[in-house]
Amino acid sequence: MATSRSLLYFFLLLLIALAFLYAFISTSVRLAEEYKRPRRTLRAPKENLWDTLLDDEVSQLINWLYEPEQGLNLTYHDNATHWDNFIGVTELIPPNKTDALAYLEGNGSVPTRYARVVLFQGASEDPYVHEIKVGPLPISKKTTWEPYNYIYNKGDSATPWYGADDKKRLHEFFKPVVSELADITYDLLGTVIYGQDNDTGGLRTVDPLQKENGRIIQWLEFIGLPQNGYNAETLLSQGLYLKFDITGRDPKGWAFKALLYNDIMYNSSAEFRKAYNTPGFVKLNKIVQGDWMTTKRQGERLPLDELPPPIAVQAEGPRYLLDVKNKYIEWMGFSFYIGFSKDLGTSLHQIMYQGKRIIYELGLQEVMTHYAGNDPVSSGLTYLDSYYGIGSYMYRLIAGYDCPEYSTFLDNWFHENGHTMYQRNSVCIFEQDAGYTIQRHTSTKVMGFGGHHQGYASATRNTVLVVRTVASIDNYDYTFDYNFYLDGSIEVKVRASGYIQGAFYANNEDYGYRIHEALSGSFHTHVINFKADIDVMGEKNTFERISLVPTTEKYPWSEKPKNTMKLKRSSIGNEDNGKLNWPENAAEMYVIMNKDVKNKYGEYPGYRIVPASGSPAHLIIQDSPYILEAAEFSKHHLFVTKHKDSESRSSSAANYMNPWDPSVNFNKFFDGESLLQEDLVVWFNLGMHHVAHTGDLPNTVSTTAQGSMMISLHNYLDLDASRQTSQMVEINFFTEL
Amino acid sequence: MATSRSLLYFFLLLLIALAFLYAFISTSVRLAEEYKRPRRTLRAPKENLWDTLLDDEVSQLINWLYEPEQGLNLTYHDNATHWDNFIGVTELIPPNKTDALAYLEGNGSVPTRYARVVLFQGASEDPYVHEIKVGPLPISKKTTWEPYNYIYNKGDSATPWYGADDKKRLHEFFKPVVSELADITYDLLGTVIYGQDNDTGGLRTVDPLQKENGRIIQWLEFIGLPQNGYNAETLLSQGLYLKFDITGRDPKGWAFKALLYNDIMYNSSAEFRKAYNTPGFVKLNKIVQGDWMTTKRQGERLPLDELPPPIAVQAEGPRYLLDVKNKYIEWMGFSFYIGFSKDLGTSLHQIMYQGKRIIYELGLQEVMTHYAGNDPVSSGLTYLDSYYGIGSYMYRLIAGYDCPEYSTFLDNWFHENGHTMYQRNSVCIFEQDAGYTIQRHTSTKVMGFGGHHQGYASATRNTVLVVRTVASIDNYDYTFDYNFYLDGSIEVKVRASGYIQGAFYANNEDYGYRIHEALSGSFHTHVINFKADIDVMGEKNTFERISLVPTTEKYPWSEKPKNTMKLKRSSIGNEDNGKLNWPENAAEMYVIMNKDVKNKYGEYPGYRIVPASGSPAHLIIQDSPYILEAAEFSKHHLFVTKHKDSESRSSSAANYMNPWDPSVNFNKFFDGESLLQEDLVVWFNLGMHHVAHTGDLPNTVSTTAQGSMMISLHNYLDLDASRQTSQMVEINFFTEL
Ligand SMILES: [Ca+2]
Ligand SMILES: [Ca+2]
Ligand SMILES: [Cu+2]
Ligand SMILES: [Cu+2]
């Protein structure tokens, strides 16, 4: 009996041991396969249709353009004078949506590839920039070129190039004027310009050019050159302004027209010199250079600050899958391609969530900054940064600062002037702990008559996938984030830092604070336009406004009517009503719905779009005399239009060269077409009104200069999608916490 | 010659070696003293004046209150019937500002301590709640009590206590009515209530109570009780409503008045039963319980999700200094005390920055949620959570989820019903990497005529100090953050999660989406009011509006007038103009300035207050028939008043008990007093309009339910304060990046 019982115990123990062993082995296998060597790369299901041209494609293309048969009369950029024609940007034209979807989601073949080539046509009395479309690529017998008119609703892909003689004017026309004033500028401003390497001053142009009575006008401002190696010259306005007429290509037609100092106009240098030599001439404060212009550490050291602050670590590598070649990513139910262009930088395409396309295209359209001021330069300064090429300013990122050390860094490159420019590590991808739970709940309550006790705490980690780039466009640095959340939301975030563009302090009280000895924090509005081609369960969607309105209602259960509030639903019927602002008191929701589909409770599935941080800004200035109709997207907070391949961008690089007749007039998109169950595109603005104060020196601080938009599922799934994650905890409040 | 040279070399080498040794030793010493064993605790310069009463104080106080000499006729709470008097909350009364500042910043002694004691007076035909002020503390011969009228602008610290007989009514009056209907509710709703432990249904009251023709009305709704242990009963409205008259203390005066089902009123159970038994009676959908109510993991597993996501680590301990006893913190130039109250939870006091007070008091005032609906319950539900005691719902935090593992956790405790309630680890303090730089700039440019090349990248870490609490007020979880930034900014952030309070779906289409079988995402507005007693370089300040306005201006340099924009500055002259909303298009800045002080460039130093994330909400409902004048703070986005010790809070726990004559009518604060160079208090709202959709199930997701306000320096220092940190990098773009 005893023996058999021992035997039984022995077998029982053996069984338990085997079970443990099995459990251990199976866990180990799982760990080894799933965790320790996870598949972190993958092959994109289809090719990326929105990345840069391949090196082969572009070198063949450029050789082809130089062939006499094409009749383009091109000179190699590095040898070109201002009287030659040369090649500027060369990049891929995104495919038509229909073709792209046929390939991506059906059996269609890869859409035929075409390039956009920008030609600078200097060999002409009326120099111009011309955009052509070349294809099919790669180069073959079938390849041809034609004017790339399709996306320019001006109807023409050519734009006057008033800047063709910039260098010549700088060296041969402006220089003598400013050199001749050197004795006065040395006294008044503390700097001189002779056009030499050791100049202590420089000239700032006001962009864009202006027209006056049919003449092309260029205003210039004297600025100090930083003497300490910092890129701070936008803080060194000096308040002396020159006006030139630069009409035409013949220097004989150019003229120095006037000089402005302390709000007084002088018609010539001689007149200014005379006034300067007259007793009583008012001399304004000079700029004072110093450490205040530098971003180096300064001021008292902070206690314990040299200890390492908390940083994020990633113990076992990334949890996203990446096809580096195709710039394709999969993460927690999301997948998308990353595109790139020299003008606009990084964009996202074919964003899928849980197997369905939710956004066909999401990307920057334009970065506008409109200044105001008492002087002709700060009054007129209006940047449209895509003209300068936002993508070309997306420099290498600083690992450990711009992005966590553990990020994946991708390269960008673009083709301009016949060269390929590489920007290593200019896109970073990383997961980030948001620093707060996406869901949490604690309950310790006694319930019902019975009073059964519950006590638990439940919480879910909020891990975010971030795709980040930074464009340092001369003085300003814009950090662009595309953030993906576990609840299916996508956030587009912009943060500003870098140097403000200041103005000279004198007479500028109504246009900004005085923030240094001779510096005004010249106030301005940033309007940063994005395109979101949202598709809710197919392309046919409707833009719904759900207004929350006060009302007085009668109810069967109440003798008297009650003051309350209710939902008022309406659709934006057509493009004439497609220009929107964010409502006062946030008392309205904007949702893109598919009204041909109902969820199981009878509601239409949709995505809501809503400002998530900062305050979106549209332009305050009405009918800007400088940007004219070149930036109509800046007049409201957001817009809805019907998708058209020909309405591919809300702006264009060429817009800035000719605001009098812009290549893309965004306002023409709004021509009464129905928006009911159509393919909709939402164009939204981020940005801010920026009244710089002393805290913007030396650089604007991101914490108070950021804004974002959230695009989130709305009655789209049956439950919150973040319930899928394993990164959660549920514990007994009374025994475990 | 050779020898003497060798000797020279030898001495030189020795010197170098010694220098190295010295450098090494001095570095080691520095490391050892400053870094490896940094002083992480400190003694607060003064005692905390805003924390809870000490245990000794409170036990003496309670004994004193029971003494017959005080004439309060109190019964120990746990023995009290509804016809007895007992003690509720017992807590410290904050000192007057003048006394506090005399102590904190001068030679004044510690302000005399007084307690606020809430007395529930049940032993009366008209039961009431009475607040008294007791002091000085600790108890001595000098201690007396008086009505605590001072902060109640009703002029009286007593409030009717209509809920005195709640338990009795529940057990003896409501129970028979619902039991008698059990057969019908079992059929219609699927649940029964007999007042037993195994009841499957419960009753929800509508708060606050209502008055009709002078009678006190209580509406009740049948709800399902969750069968799976989750606190989800707010998702289980059943659409059957009962109306009772509960006026007075005598049950003979109470009456069951009516029953409401499917928008039809029945005057008695019999009438309802008759209709129910009549053919054609419409039976609505029943609630369906299931996993959708649970916060457990559900749905498909996400790829790679079981790998650890990035988390924050803190290598060498905290970089703040803490006096745990006094709840006093110093961090990077900031210092402050943490206060606590049962009604309002955590607050911050005497916030100093760089040696100067910037905020005297920063704290929550009220959490209001106002619902709307077609039924009497969701129409009338209006929570003022301080009545329930927001601090008493600030439970233990989940380390690693609510706050990083490396956080410092503090305890709270409060005194209620003669007991001391401890809430361990209910405040967490931690530094956090914001996930983006506070400053960055890259420059690769060629400058001026001379074209000297620069290429550098500069970036600064954005480390934030967070003080966090979470209040799980029954169904909802509010996470409250006070964030401190290196640029001197302070952010107040609220995030919502937990269970929504739904409504029954039927006939509620105008008041929310149908989000489950029988559930409406009953729409509501959260208005979360905060007080910020900001002091800019002393108490005397002015609230400035800087409007950004479109204008057309003539300039000496332009023939034609130009459309532009400019700043228009104005002050809020007196309290009649002290009710504000956030402007359309963010085209106005609100800055609290000290106009008796100018910075070195002639501008007034100030702090700007601006929404940083989310969209602040004020109430949409006009003149709510339920909350009446008890929540006047909910009618605008923010308010400015002159500081008064008697206007200590914008609301009160008692307000909710008697909205017809609230103890604090916030509107009375606005009585025309001058606000020009006076001690100002800003009262601002966070919150949101919440139209719940399927993504709010099971819990609201924080990512789309958050809002914050930023209070930041404005022309206050000469430069951005974050330049002081050592946590920055500056590298050569061309050789190091
Ligand atoms: Ca679309
Ligand atoms: Ca104040
Ligand atoms: Cu700016
Ligand atoms: Cu809510």
From TrEMBL, chains A, B:
Q: Which UniProt keywords apply?
A: Copper, Metal-binding, Oxidoreductase, TPQ
Q: What is its EC number?
A: 1.4.3.-
Active-site residues (renumbered): D385 (proton acceptor), Y476 (schiff-base intermediate with substrate)
Entry keyword Metal-binding: yes
**Listed Pfam families:** Cu_amine_oxid (PF01179), Cu_amine_oxidN2 (PF02727), DUF1965 (PF09248)
Co-factor binding details: Contains 1 topaquinone per subunit.
Domain (Copper amine oxidase N2-terminal) ranges = 77-139
InterPro entries the record matches: Cu_Am_ox_TPQ-bd, Cu_amine_oxidase, Cu_amine_oxidase_C, Cu_amine_oxidase_C_sf, Cu_amine_oxidase_N-reg, Cu_amine_oxidase_N2, DUF1965
Give every DUF1965 domain span.
233-300
Q: Which GO terms describe its molecular function?
A: copper ion binding; primary methylamine oxidase activity; quinone binding
What about PTM? Answer: Topaquinone (TPQ) is generated by copper-dependent autoxidation of a specific tyrosyl residue.
What's the superkingdom here? Eukaryota
User: Entry's SUPFAM superfamilies?
Assistant: Amine oxidase catalytic domain (SSF49998), Amine oxidase N-terminal region (SSF54416)
Q: Which residues form the Copper amine oxidase catalytic domain?
A: 312-721
Chain positions with 2',4',5'-topaquinone modification: Y476
UniProt KW Metal-binding keyword = yes
GO terms, biological process: amine metabolic process
Q: Which cofactor does it need?
A: Cu cation
| Gene Ontology CC entries for this record | plasma membrane
Annotated family: Belongs to the copper/topaquinone oxidase family.
Q: What name appears for this protein in its UniProt entry?
A: Amine oxidase
Its lineage opens with: Eukaryota, Fungi, Dikarya, Ascomycota, Pezizomycotina
